[in-house]
Amino acid sequence: MPSLNSESLSSFHWMANMVESVEVGLVVLDLDFRVQMWNGFMEHHSGMTASKVHNQVLFELFPDIPRAWLSSKVEAVTQLNTRAFTSWEQRPYLLRFRNTRPITGTEEFMYQNLTISPLCGPSGKVEKVCLMIYDVTDIASNKRALERANDQLAKLSMIDRLTGLLNRGTWENLLDAEFSRYRRYGSNSTLVMFDIDHFKAINDRFGHLVGDEVIRHTAATTRSHLRHSDSAGRYGGEEFGIILPETDTEGALTICKRILNAISREPVTVDSHNITYTISIGVAPLTDRPKNYMAWLEQADQAMYSAKQAGRNQIVTFS
Ligand SMILES: Nc1nc2c(ncn2[C@@H]2O[C@H](COP(=O)(O)OP(=O)(O)OP(=O)(O)O)[C@@H](O)[C@H]2O)c(=O)[nH]1
């Protein structure tokens, strides 16, 4: 029937056109990974024409393709006669193409989702596979930007903005965790609370902004004397806390003396003012006595208050 033939021919023609122009990479491979079909998307992004790649082994055209991984995927597809799918989150791309999207121009390469489909011959046996490569750079880029923003937010909500130390909430949670650890495993742990002496006078004399610089300097000096495993936090305006895990009273006193001396001996220069100031420190080694972390905190606070009462610029250990 000639009319049917020309109709089939015409529908084949527009289908071929569609395959050529669709915004998805289409590659047909035989079971030896030789390229049988390569559509316009692939030509455009790889810079290789269909006639050039025809019958070439994919791994030779793209030596960077993870061969073992793709082979095992294709094997599963042919044996089970079923599709396989991998997303950009598992593997960012199969073929490294440059990112050509104008909006997500910051991404270096094209993120891809990949589907591998079995293609059966007339006998019903899988004879070829089709790789469908989707450009998902927009989605990946948005998701990555969102993740970065969330990480940033999580960090910001844990950190005190003025000093970069842990903020009160985060620090108290750590103190609670350290108290529980002690209850379960024992071993030394010491809590230090300290406060800048006569800070109100610094604010009154030099202004709030200079006061802020003094707080920042105190935090930086403290941080520079601590180990990675110690946790320093800003507890209140000019009050700070330090958790010293695995540290006994003697060890804590050594660190505290260093911080106290570093602060009292070196004036801090802000806006050409040389400001000399001191701190008062309370030390509370953890024993079985406090009921909870708040009671432990209370002990360190009491010791710090005693240091103020005794004339400031000194360290008192809770007893
Ligand atoms: N610049 C600045 N000042 C703050 C901040 N937070 C609290 N303050 C001020 O710190 C001062 C603390 O004063 P007080 O609690 O009376 O203590 P002090 O003057 O340090 O005296 P002692 O602790 O008894 O030695 C107050 O004037 C608060 O306004 C801050 O973030 N920046």
Helices, strands, pairings?
Elements: H1 2-21, E1 25-30, E2 35-38, H2 40-46, H3 50-53, H4 58-61, H5 67-80, E3 84-86, E4 112-120, E5 126-135, H6 137-158, H7 168-185, E6 189-196, H8 199-206, H9 208-224, E7 231-234, E8 239-245, H10 249-265, E9 268-270, E10 273-275, E11 279-285, H11 293-309, E12 315-317
Parallel strand pairs: 11-12
Antiparallel strand pairs: 1-2, 1-5, 3-4, 4-5, 6-8, 6-11, 7-8, 9-10
Helix pairs in contact: 8-9
The structure holds guanosine-5'-triphosphate.
Structural features, described:
The structure is a single chain. The longest helix is centred in the middle third of the chain and has 22 residues, at 137-158. This protein is α+β, with helices and mostly antiparallel strands. The protein starts with a helix and ends with a strand. It is elongated and about 105 Å long. Helix 8 packs across helix 9. A hairpin with a 2-residue loop joins strand 9 and strand 10. It has helices at 2-21, 40-46, 50-53, 58-61, 67-80, 137-158, 168-185, 199-206, 208-224, 249-265, 293-309, and strands at residues 25-30, 35-38, 84-86, 112-120, 126-135, 189-196, 231-234, 239-245, 268-270, 273-275, 279-285, 315-317. The chain is 46% helix and 21% strand. The chain folds into two domains: 2-144, Beta-Lactamase (2-Layer Sandwich), CATH 3.30.450.20; 159-317, Alpha-Beta Plaits, CATH 3.30.70. The structure holds guanosine-5'-triphosphate. Residues 162, 195-200, 203, 208, 211-212, 215, 237-238, 308, 312 line the site of guanosine-5'-triphosphate (GTP). Guanosine-5'-triphosphate binds at residues 162, 195-200, 203, 208, 211-212, 215, 237-238, 308, 312.
